[in-house]
Fold this sequence. Notes:
globular
Amino acid sequence: MKTIGLIGGMSWESSAVYYELINKHVKKRLGGFHSAQCILNSVDFSKIEKLQRDNNWDELNGLMVKSAKQLENAGADLIILCTNTMHLCSTEIINNTSIPFLHIAEATGAKIKSQGASKVALLGTKFTMEKDFFKNILNDLGIKTIIPNKKDREITHNIIYKELVLGDINEHSKQELKRIITDLKQQGTEGVILGCTELPLLIKPEDVDIPVFDTTKIHAESAVDLALNKENIKL
């Protein structure tokens, strides 16, 4: 079993879910008393959130590279970044480390392709919905992505940053997200990507009537599958 390096803390609530999902998938794959070999490097999200608001991606790149290098030096065999938005820093991480990096959009795209969907909705922070780092990877896989209108993007972003990252699970916000997903379904989407690692804390597959692609679950389980690969990891 390879050692999974996790860059977490963004938020710690979703990082805790990653840890649980990774260990459950190891248990499912190997049985017995098996658990994951992993190293968690958890950052202070307060600093990250401020830099995001200030649009200071140079410093954010530096912080993510530093975290990745620490994991590599600690003995990790592969790295996952336990957040969608901060994958804006993925190129710098890849360029400054020598171990494989599993991109959340690539893992999600592979899952969507396996289910035969070609047009999906993307929910997440405004960074994830409005920038191209996630959508471009899906487009390269032949998957068309649509996002909510400007007002609903703002609603979704605020639910994430003003509630979910603080551990606040609000029933009214859940109904708002369900409405947004219904509106996107009416535009012909064949599924919805929960493109923020906090969104699965609020929306479950049974809450909507189209397939849900939970990036947290997909990413965590894909990391385990890589870690258990008997051959060398290649990404």
